[in-house]
Amino acid sequence: MAQDGAATGAGTVEQPEGEDPSDLPAPPEGIRDPVVIAAEGDLPPVVPEYNEAGERQISFAADVLSYDSDADVTTAEGNVILQSGDRSLRADSVSWSQRTGVILASGNVRFVDENGNQLYTEQVELTDEFEAGAMEDLLLALRAGGRLAANKGVRESDGTILLEEAAYSACAVTTPDGCDKDPSWRITADRVTYDPFEAKVKFKGAYLELFGARLIPMPGLSVRTDDGGVSGFLVPDIRISESNGVEVSGSYYLRMADNKDLTLSAYLFSKTTPMVSAQWRQLTDKGAYQITGYATHSRRISDFTGLTNATEADPRGYVFANGRFQFDPNWSLTGSVRLASDKTFLRRYDISRDDRLRSTINLERIDADSYFSLAGWATQTLRLNQEQERVPIALPVLDYRKRLTDPLAGGQLELQLNSLAIIRKLGQETERAFAKAEWSKKRITGMGQVFTLTGLVRGDVYHSDGNLLNPTPSYRGNEGWETRGVALGAVDVEWPFVGELFGGEQVFTPRVQFVVTPEIKNLAIPNEDARAIDLEDSNLFALNRFPGYDRIEDGARVTYGFDWKLRRPGLELFTTLGQSYRLDSDRDILPDGTGLSEKVSDFVGRTEVRYRDFVKLAHRYRLDKDNLAIRRNEFDATIGTSRTYAEVGYLRLNRNIDTVEDLQDREELRAAVRVAFANYWSVFGSGVFNLTDREEDPTLSSDGFQPIRTRLGVAYQDDCLELGATWRRDYVSAGDARRGDTFQLYFSLKNLGFR
Questions:
Q1: What are the strands, taking DSSP E only, across 691-755?
Q2: 571-582 and 603-611 as β-strands: parallel, antiparallel, unpaired?
Q3: What pTM was estimated for this model as a whole?
Q4: Residue in 450, 420, 419, 451 with CA at minimum distance from that of residue 435
Q5: What are the tens digits of pLDDT across the range 267-287?
Q6: Are strands 555-568 and 571-582 parallel, antiparallel or unpaired?
């Protein structure tokens, strides 16, 4: 007999009224004990996955519940939801046979396993352990992204899913508007195995299809479903360059464990010998690090003349390693190493265009009120006209700071200890140590003025030798031991005014600062870290407008200016302008042309405009105080959306300084544009141009327009596929990194890690 009823209450599935459970037939031999099923309201209750007897518990909700006592089958219909632990199932109808322990779900079935992967099918058979069995016309949506569709499938007792005539893709099958679309790429396979314990999908007889065309066989392909990597070959890159000819590179990714992997790569060239590289990455319980290395044995131009007969074959390579380790919430160690065999290796093989490689190590301790750092720095120059022996090594660099709140008159006191040693194989060497105490107090008056008082004292000890080897006399200082005392006092006043303007809010903030420092014997001290001095909007109100510690701007000065900001819906505008006036005589440490060498400084300012997310403009400038000539003109603009935009950057330094190498004039232009079309396609281009002429830099032979590098390309990019072709032209030869054209083809598939 059978009886229907609404699914209400909780506990085991109740037998129809009047039946004695002892009269029901016992389950056949070998069949497990009945599954305990709970039901409550419209949603399944949260219950433990197993009860105290070790039986799996399955909670459910359904519109209608019926029981057929003759067949010993319980049936739930109408928006049925079953849940056990992290597994859940939704279907139009679910029947459970108490005799066999089989659960049969049909009609719009969605089964979610404990890993978050979702299985869609019209009918699926589950065991009393809530394991899916045989199914047809199924779709498996993986938690890590990607979908598997198959004509037939079966889930084994261990949770493994076997699929036949399957296809895999990470692409969406609908547009953002909800319209159907074909995936850009997919993997078709005769047989697919999904192992939930290894979180891996393995393919047999697999092919890659792009835009519906079967292109590349992919034997041994496997994909992880937990965002982890799988060992295997990566798709090769193809490039054609003037220096190396045709280049084909391929990589093999080796996943050693969940926390470490190794990538081995090989590069074949038509114009030079092959190259190999390797990258090791590891995550530890204290931090992470990676090591990358390149190696080859090739010819290079030894004297950088560009003559093909001045070549020699040498071992060549590059090593890059970095890492960070956090020992506890306060202590950490950060380091990086970058070393190249010669000055043109990185540029020749298009690994990097840096003109210097910096290696560093830094041990730090940071808490709420103190900072400690013990560091070291070394730099390898890749500039062809610079000698490595003259490049300094800074080791050790020690810095300690301690902040004390309210130690005196309600202010804040910061104590600092600092030491530095500069070592050169050829050139001046310097050691420095100083101790500093800086007190500051900020107060807001009843009328809204912001007063900041600052007092600073510092004592320095320097030692240097080889001073005459320094090519810039003003940087040398006196040889041997030197001491220096520094004292500084400052008053800074800001007075913001807020009001309405143009339908928005404006803030006008005039500012005045007075700084006084007794005369300091700056020129007796070597200058290692305070060389590139220039008046800018960013340092106009700085207590010391030199960038480092070796030079202190002494004397008395008044600095004045204003900030103005306007905000209205969709529009932000900010501008600042200022100048300073020195009360005493000129300073020899400030070269002519820096904007600070005379009593009255140049004008400096900055203007920024932002209109929604479509327009971003920034203009920084310095105007000559006598004739308003533009001494610094820097302009950056971005116009457009994230898909179609134009970027322009322009810089001109017109300071007429020819006595200090760190302050040479220059002029350059950078531009980039990208235009999107046909939903996923785009064309793009960029260029870097040197506009410096012989009047700005007498050492140049340029007529004022010299392209450095240009680039053009076309790309396709959707939610799961990126491919494109680029052409780049380099206009400057640097040794065996020859000027000329470079062509590159690339593509990347989401979820497969191919690039």
A1: 706-717, 721-730, 740-749
A2: antiparallel
A3: 0.76
A4: 419
A5: 999 989 999 999 999 999 999
A6: antiparallel
